[in-house]
Every structure is written in structure tokens, then in C-alpha cells.
């Protein structure tokens, strides 16, 4: 009787020809290839409630558009109010003014001059040609309101631009993964290898590495699970948490019976349809902001029987030199055909060594056989 776990593992690695292929969920540079459809219109108001995050996450072209629109829109809106005040007081050109008429605003004769006055007021330029006379109380109140609105717009837009420039994902751009993965023997174990490098000298504090295997699978009940996620553990020689990420590291995943890659072999790997997503989480040392770097590998990007070339060496001056020209390069090495074959060979070798040790213990080379020709009398008591 086949257990559910073994049945599910068998279904996980069915040949790709039995189902239609899908595109990547995560691109090589870490972007998620997903879209949302049939979202209720009421849910769109949630973006307005979280206005700050919405502004920070939108594209730069829209941020620049909102930057220009917010300032020009506020200038024009207040220019209409200044024009209304001037018109009410009879300051515009063509209006009949009596002798001794006192203007609310000097040199505001129409909408154009009202717009210029609004621009000068909010940006505190003050050319000196247009100014409030203090005769109208409304002008004083409107100057205060427009000044406060201008300060608010300046703070908000500068904050959005600064936040977008300092986003943690920008720090992730300086962390890179190898273009391909490799499967080979590492310290007597069959491992999946991936190389990662930090292009900055500043560290990523508290770095953690883990992976997810994405695949459309079927359960024993006949249910189809799209994008089923299976945990894939990665580690380096020093562990998998709190890495000293100052130079390129080689991550490895041991392919054993608990690994989701246990049923794979050198022949069946290129024909599979899965996606391995690798994550690296850490905190930037210079900004103390958390960031995540991710990439993905499809079966065609995993090389069975290859190992990465060394890239770290010593210089004559005593420094460590990292040669990034060999970062994604690999060389072919002797590798078992599959994980099951490797374990079978290892068990056979252990059995032979164990049997040899027992035989050596029985057949002692230091023991000499002596022939006794005389009969020995045995006395019964």
C-alpha cells in the first residue's frame, strides 16, 4: 500500500509532457509574475485608506506626474480664489472703480496675474510687484491657508520621493544569485548548489536563506493544487541563519529521502515542470531596513553533474580577491546518476566494509594451527 506522502511525491515529478507548461511565478530578478482579477470595486478604496503605501509603491512616472499635478493644481485652485476676491472688490480691469478705491491685492488685474500671485505666495518667491494691501480681511486668511497647504504638499511629496529612493528593495539590487544551479557531490553528500554574492562591502545582518518548490500537483482524492509549495532547506558550512555575508557564498541543499528532489535523476530532470524559488532575508547594515532578495530556477537551469568554479583567492598584498568572472561558471564533475543510486552504492560499500571487518576479526593472521597426532585420553568423572 502506497502512503499519501510517497504518492504525492510521485505526482510531484510527473513528466512535463503530461500537463501544459506554465510560465515563471518569480522572474530571475525577483519580480512576481501574477495579476489579480475580478476584484470587488469596494476593495479599491482600501488603497485610498493606505494612501502613503500607495504613493510609495506606484511607479516613478506616476509619482512625477502627481508631483507636478499637486503643485500646479494647488496654484490654479488658489488663483481662482484670489481672482474671486479681486473681482468682488472691483480690482479687475474693466470694472468701474470710484475715486479713493483701495485694492485688496496690488497689480492683480485678471486670471493670469491672479495665477502668478498664487504661485509667488505658495513658493514664497515675492517679486515685489504683487502684494496684499491688508485692506481686505479675506486676503490675510487666504494667505495663511495657502501657505499651510503649500508646506503640507512639500512635506508629503518630498517624503514620498525620499521613501522611494531609500526602499529596501533597492539594496536587494546589489545581491545577486548565480544564473544556474548545480547538482554534485559535496563532502560525501549529493547536494543542489546555488551561489549568492553581496556586491557591497556593507553586510546584510541576520541573513536567512530558504527555498520553496512550486509545482501543480494532485492529491490522492483527485484534487488539483495549483502552485503547491514545498519547503526546501538551504545552508552553508556555517549554518543557514545569521550568515557572515561578506563574500560570495555557496548554498547547498542535501538531496536525501526527505528532499523533494529525491526521485529525480540526471535523465528525468530536464523533463520536469517545477520552479525552485530561493529567498534571502536580511537587514541592511547602513540603513537598518529589512530587505528580501529572491530568484527562481526552472529544471533547464539546474545542471546535473556540475560544480561551481572557485572565485575567492589570496593576493600578494594579503587581501582576499573575488573573481566574479567565474561566479556562474561551472565545471563537470563525477556525480551519481540519481540520489537513490548514490544511497544504494553507499549502503553497499558500508556493507562490504562491515563484512570485511568481521572476516578479519575471525581469521586472525596471528593465529597458528598446530597438528596433534597423538590421541588424547578423556576421563569421565
List the helices and strands and how they pair.
Blueprint: H1 4-12, H2 45-49, H3 51-57, H4 60-89, H5 111-123, H6 137-165, H7 168-172, E1 175-177, E2 181-186, E3 189-198, E4 204-218, E5 224-233, E6 249-254, E7 275-284, E8 290-297, E9 302-304, E10 306-308, E11 312-314, E12 320-322, E13 330-332, H8 339-362
Parallel strand pairs: 2-9
Antiparallel strand pairs: 1-3, 2-3, 3-6, 4-5, 4-7, 7-8, 10-13, 11-12
Helix pairs in contact: 3-6, 4-5, 4-6, 5-6
Protein architecture, described:
Helix 4 crosses helix 5 (111-123) and helix 5 packs across helix 6. It is elongated, with a radius of gyration of 37 Å. The strands form four sheets. Strands 1, 2, 3, 6 and 9 form a five-stranded mixed beta sheet that branches. It has helices at residues 4-12, 45-49, 51-57, 60-89, 111-123, 137-165, 168-172, 339-362, and strands at 175-177, 181-186, 189-198, 204-218, 224-233, 249-254, 275-284, 290-297, 302-304, 306-308, 312-314, 320-322, 330-332. By secondary structure, the protein is an alpha+beta fold. 21% of the residues are buried.
Amino acid at each position: 500500500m502506497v502512503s499519501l506522502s510517497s504518492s504525492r511525491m510521485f505526482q510531484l515529478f510527473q513528466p512535463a509532457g503530461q500537463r501544459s507548461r506554465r510560465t515563471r511565478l518569480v522572474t530571475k530578478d525577483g519580480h512576481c509574475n501574477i495579476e489579480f482579477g475580478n476584484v470587488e470595486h469596494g476593495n479599491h478604496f482600501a488603497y485610498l485608506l493606505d494612501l502613503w503605501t500607495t504613493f510609495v509603491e506606484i511607479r516613478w512616472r506616476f509619482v512625477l506626474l502627481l508631483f507636478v499635478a499637486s503643485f500646479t493644481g494647488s496654484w490654479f485652485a488658489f488663483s481662482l480664489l484670489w481672482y474671486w476676491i479681486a473681482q468682488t472688490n472691483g480690482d479687475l480691469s474693466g470694472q468701474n472703480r470710484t475715486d479713493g478705491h483701495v485694492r485688496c491685492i496690488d497689480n492683480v488685474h485678471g486670471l493670469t496675474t491672479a495665477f502668478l500671485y498664487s504661485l509667488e505666495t505658495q513658493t514664497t518667491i515675492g517679486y515685489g510687484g504683487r502684494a496684499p494691501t491688508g485692506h481686505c480681511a479675506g486676503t490675510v486668511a487666504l494667505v495663511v491657508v495657502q501657505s499651510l497647504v503649500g508646506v503640507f504638499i512639500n512635506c508629503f511629496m518630498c517624503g514620498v520621493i525620499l521613501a522611494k529612493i531609500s526602499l529596501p528593495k533597492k539594496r536587494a539590487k546589489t545581491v545577486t544569485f548565480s544564473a544556474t544551479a548545480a547538482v554534485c557531490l559535496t563532502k560525501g553528500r549529493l547536494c543542489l548548489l546555488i551561489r549568492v554574492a553581496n556586491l557591497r562591502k556593507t553586510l546584510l545582518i541576520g541573513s536567512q536563506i530558504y527555498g520553496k518548490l512550486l509545482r501543480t500537483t494532485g492529491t490522492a482524492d483527485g484534487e488539483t493544487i495549483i502552485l503547491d509549495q514545498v519547503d526546501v532547506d538551504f545552508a552553508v558550512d556555517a549554518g543557514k541563519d545569521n550568515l557572515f555575508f561578506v563574500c560570495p557564498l555557496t548554498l547547498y541543499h542535501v538531496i536525501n529521502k526527505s528532499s523533494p528532489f529525491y526521485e529525480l535523476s540526471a535523465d528525468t530532470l530536464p523533463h520536469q515542470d517545477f520552479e525552485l524559488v530561493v529567498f534571502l532575508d536580511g537587514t541592511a547594515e547602513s540603513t537598518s531596513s529589512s530587505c528580501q532578495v529572491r530568484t527562481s530556477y526552472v529544471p533547464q537551469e539546474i545542471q546535473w553533474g556540475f560544480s561551481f568554479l572557485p572565485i575567492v583567492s589570496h593576493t600578494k598584498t594579503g587581501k582576499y580577491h573575488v573573481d566574479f568572472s567565474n561566479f556562474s561558471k561551472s565545471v563537470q564533475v563525477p556525480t551519481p546518476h540519481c540520489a537513490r543510486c548514490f544511497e544504494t552504492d553507499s549502503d553497499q560499500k558500508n556493507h562490504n566494509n562491515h563484512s570485511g571487518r568481521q572476516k578479519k576479526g575471525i581469521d586472525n593472521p596471528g593465529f597458528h594451527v598446530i597438528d596433534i597426532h597423538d590421541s588424547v585420553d578423556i576421563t569421565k568423572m
